Amino acid sequence: MKIIFIRRFDDCVFMAKDKKEQKLTDLPGIGPAIAEKLEAAGFSDMMSLAVLSPKELEDLAGLTEATARKTIQAARKMMDLGFRDATEYLKEREEMIYISTGSKNLNTLLGGKGLETGAVTEAYGAYGSGKSQLAHSLSVHAQLPRERGGAEGMAVFIDTEGTFRPERIRSIAEGLGLDATTALKNVFVARAFNSDHQMLLIDKILEMINEKKLPIKLIVIDSLTSHFRAEFAGRGMLADRQQKLNKHIHSLVRLAEQYKVAVYITNQVMANPGVLFGDPTTAIGGHILGHASQYRMYLRRGKKGSRVAKMIDAPSLPENEAVFWLTTEGLADAEPKDPSEA
Predict the structure, then answer these.
(1) pTM as predicted
(2) Looking at domain 22-79, what is its CATH homologous superfamily?
């Protein structure tokens, strides 16, 4: 029996409309022209201004330092930024949306339900370890109803290495009983040709969320470090690369937290010559990337064509491993009976 998935996005987009909407023009020093300039740069709500520094707002809006400081203070007062007791955070986490990976084993490794919205999840590993396959699977599962492990939303896929394959989206969608054409239309793809273009595409995502009101629930970057690694070669450019990468990953973290979007990034690896015993595989990006990702997994090939995911770092999860297989219909927990399906 084929299940046709009907998008139900109207119910889950911007439920805060019932509340009195706070506008940027309510802030001192922000007129219609400056508000338009800020919105074009992706700063369209109070929270995005409240977390800026006066210098950043000064550069963005052309305000004086004193006015920028006054504007930010007013935004922070309106947002009531400060301390809350932990029970409020617990309630928020209980209402968190998760996106299934398609594998129960991998979902369990990630805490039981899958990829967490409002957080950045990184997967690193050698080529052929399953990083891109997981990205395709997540792009389809994000569209499912919540009761089926989805987020009832759309996905954005930033492709830096030419790894995106629409055929994969179609086969995974058909395996889930979804309409393949609808599934393909719910995945927006952009090919990033350099690091600046890659960073610019984050602003485009903000436009899609704020201006076009699209229910983006998943952002995939495959891979995050490819262009940075190619453009900033050698130790002499390492500081510049890390500084730019730091800015990029923190804008992703802010986007994930602000709009409750799941961010999945893949990362390249290198062999660490300092490791004499054990696996020398090390993720690119150093401590900057390691600290920014809330969930960090290492993917590698296993026995009989399987893939093994190891949880390297997570706020409240233990180090553990999960085994899964790649099939024509996505990720699976058991070895395919027909080898041609792998």
Answers:
(1) 0.81
(2) 5' to 3' exonuclease, C-terminal subdomain (1.10.150.20)
